[in-house]
Amino acid sequence: MAGRSRGPRTVKLPSAAEADALLRRMRGEVENNSNYRTKSLKIHGPVCARCGRQFDAASINQLTVHHRDGNHHNNPPDGSNWENLCNHCHDDEHSRGLLGDYLESAEKPHTR
Ligand SMILES: [Zn+2]
Ligand SMILES: [Zn+2]
């Protein structure tokens, strides 16, 4: 008579819950990344903060959301780290001094 069974050995498989969590995390990051643009446009409007150029549905892809502190992961929901800049002003912003160098290396791994 076996007093106590050893029971089945628990094999660690990637459970559905784990896969789901991973998926949710990935999805969350993707959402965050594309969402800040939408949010910034909503908060600051489809206008370049520098030159005041206005954008419509056809030209909105020329408007870039710039991170004031250069940290793309700093996306406060109140939009305080975002600035909507047209391609021209955004380029300009990134080509000046220390900030430009920092952002250039943060956004693009290669230098032009
Ligand atoms: Zn501009
Ligand atoms: Zn930028």
Description:
It is a single chain. With 112 residues, this protein is mainly alpha-helical. The protein has a single domain, classed as His-Me finger endonuclease fold. The chain contains three helices and two strands. The chain has a two-stranded antiparallel sheet with strand order 1-2. It starts with 15 loop residues before the first helix and ends in a 5-residue tail after the last helix. The mean pLDDT is 82. One zinc ion (ZN) binds at residues 66-67, 90, 94, 103.
Short description:
By secondary structure, the chain is mainly α. It has helices at 16-44, 87-94, 97-107; strands spanning 63-67, 82-86.
Fold topology:
Elements: H1 16-44, E1 63-67, E2 82-86, H2 87-94, H3 97-107
Antiparallel strand pairs: 1-2
This protein binds zinc ion (2 copies).
One zinc ion binds at residues 66-67, 90, 94, 103.
Helix content: 40-55%
Q: Looking at the chains present, what oligomeric state does this protein adopt?
A: single chain
* Spatial arrangement of strands, main beta sheet: 1-2
For the secondary structure, the number of strands is 2
Rg estimate, integer Å: 23 Å
Going by CATH, the architecture would be: 3-Layer(aba) Sandwich
Poorly predicted sequence stretches spanning 5 or more consecutive residues? none
**Distance separating the two termini:** 78 Å
- Average pLDDT taken over every residue: 82
Note the total helix count: 3
Count of discrete structural domains: 1
Largest sheet: number of strands, sense, barrel closure: 2 strands, antiparallel
The coarse overall form would be elongated
Which class do the helix and strand fractions yield?
A: mainly alpha
CATH class reads Alpha Beta
- Write the element-wise H/E pattern from the N-terminal end onward: HEEHH
